[in-house]
Amino acid sequence: MNIVDIINKTKRSLPLSDAEINWMVKSFTEGGIPDYQMAAWLMAVCLNGLTESETLALTYAMRDSGDTLELDIPMTVDKHSTGGIGDKTTLIVGPAAAACGLCVAKMSGRGLGFTGGTIDKLESIRGLRTDLSTDKFTEILKTTGFSVISQSETLCPADKKIYALRNATGTVDSIPLICASIMSKKLATNADCLLLDVKWGSGAFMKKRDDAERLAALMERIGKAAGKKCRAVVTDMNTPLGDNVGNALEVKEALEILRGEKKGALYDLCTELTAQLLELAGKGEHDACLKMAAQAISSGKALDVFRRTIALQGGDARVCDDLSLLPAASNSYRLRAVCDMEILSVNSEEIGMTSLLLGAGRLTSDDIPDMSAGIVINCKPGDILSAGDTIMTFYSSVCSDFTETAFRGLNAIRFRSIEEGSSE
Ligand code: URA
User: Fold this and answer.
1) Which CATH number describes the domain made up of 329-423?
2) In the annotation, is 185 catalytic?
3) pLDDT (tens digit, 9 = 90+) per residue, 285-317?
4) What separation in Å is there between the alpha carbon of 150 and the centre of ligand 1?
C-alpha cells in the first residue's frame, strides 16, 4: 500500500478500504509514514470528510493501536463530555449514578488550553491519585461504584500522535476526525453503556448547534455499531456551566451541589445526565430515573460515594465536609459593575481565556496549572446588577497584576447600561 495513493483517494472523495485505513494508522503510529504525509491526508479529510464506514474503520484502527481496558466487572457505564468551560459534571454525575447502583468507570485526560480536564480538577484534592493500576481501579469500582483514572500511555497511541499533528496543522475541526478520536478512546475504555454529552457554543469545539448535532448523531451510530448501548445528547456551552471555573473552584462547586447547597443550571444538567445514564443502563423510565438522580443527591448518598472514592484514591476526604481544605489562591480581585446594568450574555470562550491568564489551564502539555486559580462568576444572562456589585472575582496564586485579566473578563460580558439604555 502507498500513502500517496491514499491521500489522492481522499482528495478526490474516493472511498478507502478498511485495509487501507488500518495500514495507514498502523504505519503512522509505528513511524513508517512521516508527519507531512499524514498531515496532507488529515487536511483532505477536513475538506472532503469521510464516509460513515471509513469513520468506523478509522475508529477501530485507532482503538486497536493500543490496549483495551478489561475489567472484571459485569457492567460498567461511562459518561463523556466533549469539553467546555466550567464543566465539572463528571464529579457530580459519577457519584450520583453510582449511588443509584451503576458502576461508573471513568478514564479521563488532563486539560489542554482553557478546557479543564477532570484529572486536573480531581488532583486539586490533596493526595488524590489517578495513576491507579487496573486492579486498584477495579477494587474501588467494586467498593463505591465510581472511580476516575488517568488515561494510560498504552491507550490509543495512534490518537495521541494524530491529535498532536492535528493541533499543529489546523485539522482539529473535522467531524469524522473528532468522532474517531473520541470514540476510539471510549471503545478502548470498553464500558457497556456510553453517554456522550456533545457541547455546542462559544466555549465548545462545535461553535454551531447543527454541527454538534451531526457529531452527536455520528458518535451515537458509531458506538452502537461497535455493540455499545450508546446515547448522545447536545448541550449548550455558550455560557459557562455553573459559577466556578478553575480546578479547585470547580471541585468546590461540585461539592456544594453534592452537599445539597446549590441548585440551578448545573444541578439541572447533572440530574438530567444521571437520569439519561440510568435509563440507558435499564434502570427505568426517564421520569423515574430523574427522581432517582435527585434523591441520590438530596439523601447525601452521592456525596458519600464521592467521599469514599476520594479516600480510596488516596485523597483527603475531609474536603467533602470542609471546603476550606481545597487549595486557596493567595491573590484575588473583584471586577465590579461601574453602573446599573442588565447582563445580556457571558461568553464561555472569553471566560476560558481569562482563566488561562490566571494560570488555571495549560498552554502546552508540560505546563503545571495553578490549582487555586480561576474565576467565580456572580451573574448570568438576564440578571440586573447595581453599580458596585461584583460581576466576577478572579483568583490566582501565580498572578498578582489583574489588569489584563480584568479587560479580558469584562470582554466576556455583554451588558446593557440601565441609566443610558445603551448596550456594550
Ligand atoms: N477531544 C478529543 O479527544 N479529540 C478530538 O478530536 C476533539 C476533542
Assistant:
1) 3.90.1170.30
2) yes
3) 999 999 999 999 999 999 999 999 999 999 999
4) 16
